């Protein structure tokens, strides 16, 4: 973080799982399977290792500063932002609504547990900046978290820091 900025203007927002939306998306998959129907053209269905998370923005004038994440054990987490103000009770999630780049961080199975997490720094920087842009026009944003290679939601802590424009 730039030390010339006022540290009191820092705002750290934690990603929070949204169990109701995750369950609603799982019900959509289950309903399609039971009825033998196919997903709509371009529809993005929730995979078993994914969950819906959200960020609530108390302020819309934000600039991205940095990520904070920790993962006990090993595994890979990918975070995909949803650019539309998505309401799964009214509309299906479409692939065109997913942001690029995605955020990815991981620790390999052979790495010591106290080794630092690895991540794609340029992608994570751009992803954080995109979130700050979208925060200017909304109060909440949704994300798909995918837990792979042994990662579990209970072992994850993930938040993002912004500076607040005065």
TrEMBL record:
One GO biological process term: sensory perception of smell
InterPro entries (alphabetical): Olfactory_marker (IPR009103), Olfactory_marker_sf (IPR036727)
Protein origin, superkingdom: Eukaryota
Cited Pfam families: Olfactory_mark
UniProt name for this protein: Olfactory marker protein a
Source organism per UniProt: Sparus aurata
């Amino acid at each position: 973080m730039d030390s010339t900025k006022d540290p009191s203007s820092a705002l750290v927002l934690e990603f929070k799982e949204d169990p109701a939306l995750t369950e609603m998306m799982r019900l959509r998959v289950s309903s399609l399977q039971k009825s033998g129907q196919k997903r709509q053209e371009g529809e993005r269905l929730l995979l078993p290792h994914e969950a819906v998370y959200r960020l609530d923005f108390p302020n819309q004038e934000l600039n991205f500063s940095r990520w904070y994440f920790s993962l006990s054990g090993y595994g890979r987490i990918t975070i995909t932002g949803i650019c539309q103000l998505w309401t799964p009770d009214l509309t299906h999630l479409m692939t065109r609504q997913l942001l690029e780049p995605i955020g990815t961080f991981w620790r390999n199975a052979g790495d010591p547990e106290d080794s630092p997490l690895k991540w794609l720094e340029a992608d994570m920087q751009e992803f954080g900046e995109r979130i700050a842009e979208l925060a200017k026009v909304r109060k909440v944003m949704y994300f798909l978290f995918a837990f792979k290679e042994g990662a579990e939601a209970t072992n994850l802590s993930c938040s993002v820091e912004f500076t607040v424009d005065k």
